[in-house]
């Protein structure tokens, strides 16, 4: 007997499962508000060099002072990182005659002046993370994803060792603590450290929420559960745009996106531990209690009986499962090394790691580039969130029709092709480029939606959280590198897009090497995989 047989007897998708899924969707909403916060936290408004006051400027307007103090680009805009070493008063007579002598041009010497019409303050304006310091600004996102990467390893192991619910609660509490410390940062170093630790904490939420819900749902509703959880990510995406629009000061913006974690902590008390994990770890009585609760809520009165009466059928079934699964593995200890010990599991781990890297690398590469629509940054973020919802709905149909493997491979390959197409399409074709960008974002989200569902079905119960931890580790490496790739535009303007395109196509092709899991029972032990 398999655990799925028990779920069918007590109700594999009833009121009990619906309640759990919706509670677990609350922290899911909060994730993109932190993962994509860099778009607003580190936004760089238009700026120019600060010009110290001189007696010669007394009768000049501010526009005239800028005209004689800052060189201009070919389109007439002032250069953000350079100034004249001496005022060029001749430009007052003919501003079109820009000096050709580069020796009189120097980097900003007295700081910068920022346009505060869109942002009251960001970390860019707080600590002048522009021009030569631009790399530190992009590195803020990298530090966060490095934290997420470390957290994937830590919480993947801990949740398999100490349980899903306990580690989810720990990660939410730590997210609140470090999120508030980030908001109180008084230096760039403090912000970098606290954002890294926030990433570690939030990684636990990202890693545990989906498997905890999936382990209570029957086979027929696993896809629906995965898509539902993913839709709430998109809702969080849109809410981020609205919150950022209302809160323009970066300290309070961090407080605003961290606060909802408190609600998740309160609601989590109604979520039970995974009965599947309890059985696999020999805690049969606790699993029995949770399964009885599930049966009562789902109206399966035949199983909602007192444990003091004659041994109910559900307890016998639990013992059968325990004898088959737990007793065979009780003396074994599983770790990340176990993912690579046997040949089939080794192939799955290597290929799924490559796919996760490509999915995260291309997704965050697109999500952190909000200038492709010609819209303001808030509307672009909102549109990106809306685009994701139809992509998820379509994937709900596709993964059950054409299978997980084909869906995973082609959505990621098409993401790369859309990114590459915009490198070729001329800049003047604005509408066409926008349509291709929208399609690329949709494919990117479809690939991300599929990979969460697909990976949780590839690994056995005894190693599922280790497997999710490992793949999340690789994915966060992709997420950490994605913001830094934007710095390659100094080498060649299109190099970032070419890089995203190449990685997405190559990693999408690797997905063809993975096994299909459509309508296949979740494997319980390693022997089920091999």
From TrEMBL:
Gene3D superfamilies: MFS general substrate transporter like domains. Keywords: Cell membrane, Ion transport, Membrane, Transmembrane, Transmembrane helix, Transport. Residues 87-518 form the Major facilitator superfamily (MFS) profile domain. The chain crosses the membrane at residues 139-159, 166-186, 192-212, 224-246, 252-271, 348-366, 378-398. Pfam families: Sugar_tr. GO terms for biological process: monoatomic ion transport. Its main location: membrane. GO terms for molecular function: organic anion transmembrane transporter activity; prostaglandin transmembrane transporter activity. CDD domains: MFS_SLC22A7_OAT2. InterPro entries: MFS_dom (IPR020846), MFS_sugar_transport-like (IPR005828), MFS_trans_sf (IPR036259). PROSITE patterns: MFS (PS50850). It catalyses: GTP(in) = GTP(out); creatinine(in) = creatinine(out); prostaglandin E2(out) = prostaglandin E2(in); 3',5'-cyclic GMP(in) = 3',5'-cyclic GMP(out). It is a multi-pass membrane protein. It is found in: Apical cell membrane; Basolateral cell membrane. GO terms for cellular component: apical plasma membrane; basolateral plasma membrane. Belongs to the major facilitator (TC 2.A.1) superfamily. Organic cation transporter (TC 2.A.1.19) family. This is Solute carrier family 22 member 7. It comes from Leptosomus discolor.
């Amino acid at each position: 007997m398999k655990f799925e047989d028990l779920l069918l007897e007590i109700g594999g998708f009833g009121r009990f499962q619906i309640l759990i899924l919706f509670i677990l969707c609350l922290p899911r909403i909060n994730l993109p508000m932190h993962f994509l916060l860099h778009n607003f936290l580190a936004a760089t408004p238009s700026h120019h060099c600060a010009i110290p006051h001189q007696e010669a400027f007394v009768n000049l307007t501010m526009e005239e002072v800028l005209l004689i103090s800052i060189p201009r680009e070919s389109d007439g805009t002032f250069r953000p990182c350079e100034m004249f070493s001496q005022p060029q008063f001749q430009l007052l007579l003919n501003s079109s005659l820009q000096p050709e002598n580069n020796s009189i041009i120097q980097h900003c010497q007295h700081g910068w002046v920022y346009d505060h019409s869109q942002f009251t303050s960001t970390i860019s304006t707080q600590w002048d993370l522009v021009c030569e310091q631009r790399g530190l600004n992009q590195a803020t996102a990298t530090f966060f994803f490095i934290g997420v990467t470390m957290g994937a390893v830590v919480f993947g192991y801990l949740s398999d060792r100490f349980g899903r619910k306990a580690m989810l609660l720990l990660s939410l509490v730590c997210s609140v603590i470090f999120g508030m410390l980030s908001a109180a940062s008084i230096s760039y170093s403090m912000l970098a450290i606290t954002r890294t630790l926030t990433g570690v904490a939030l990684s636990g939420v990202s890693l545990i929420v989906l498997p905890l819900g999936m382990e209570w749902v029957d086979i027929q509703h696993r896809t629906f559960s995965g898509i539902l959880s993913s839709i709430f990510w998109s809702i969080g995406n849109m809410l981020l745009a609205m919150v950022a629009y209302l809160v323009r000061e970066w300290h309070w913006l961090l407080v605003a996106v961290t606060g909802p974690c408190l609600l998740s902590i309160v609601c989590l008390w109604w979520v039970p531990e995974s009965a599947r994990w309890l059985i696999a770890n020999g805690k049969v009585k606790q699993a029995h209690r949770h399964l009885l609760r599930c049966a009562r809520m789902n109206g399966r009165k035949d199983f909602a009986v007192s444990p003091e009466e004659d041994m109910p059928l559900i307890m016998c079934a639990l013992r059968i499962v325990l004898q088959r699964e737990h007793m065979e593995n009780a003396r074994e200890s599983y770790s990340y090394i176990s993912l690579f010990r046997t040949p089939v599991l080794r192939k799955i781990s290597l290929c799924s790691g490559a796919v996760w890297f490509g999915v995260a690398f291309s997704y965050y590469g697109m999500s952190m580039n909000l200038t492709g629509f010609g819209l303001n940054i808030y509307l672009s973020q909102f549109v990106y969130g809306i685009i994701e919802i139809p992509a998820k709905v379509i994937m709900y149909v596709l993964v059950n029709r054409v299978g997980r493997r084909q869906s995973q491979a082609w959505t990621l390959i098409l993401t790369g092709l859309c990114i590459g197409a915009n490198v070729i399409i001329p800049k003047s074709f604005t509408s066409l480029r926008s349509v291709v960008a929208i399609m690329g974002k949709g494919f990117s989200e479809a690939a991300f939606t599929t990979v969460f569902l697909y990976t949780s079905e590839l690994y056995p119960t005894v190693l599922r959280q280790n497997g999710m931890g490992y793949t999340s580790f690789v994915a966060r490496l992709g997420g950490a590198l994605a913001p830094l790739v934007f710095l390659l535009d100094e080498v060649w303007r299109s190099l970032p897009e070419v890089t995203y395109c190449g990685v997405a196509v190559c990693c999408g092709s690797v997905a063809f090497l993975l096994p299909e899991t459509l309508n296949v029972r979740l494997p319980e032990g390693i022997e089920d995989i091999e």
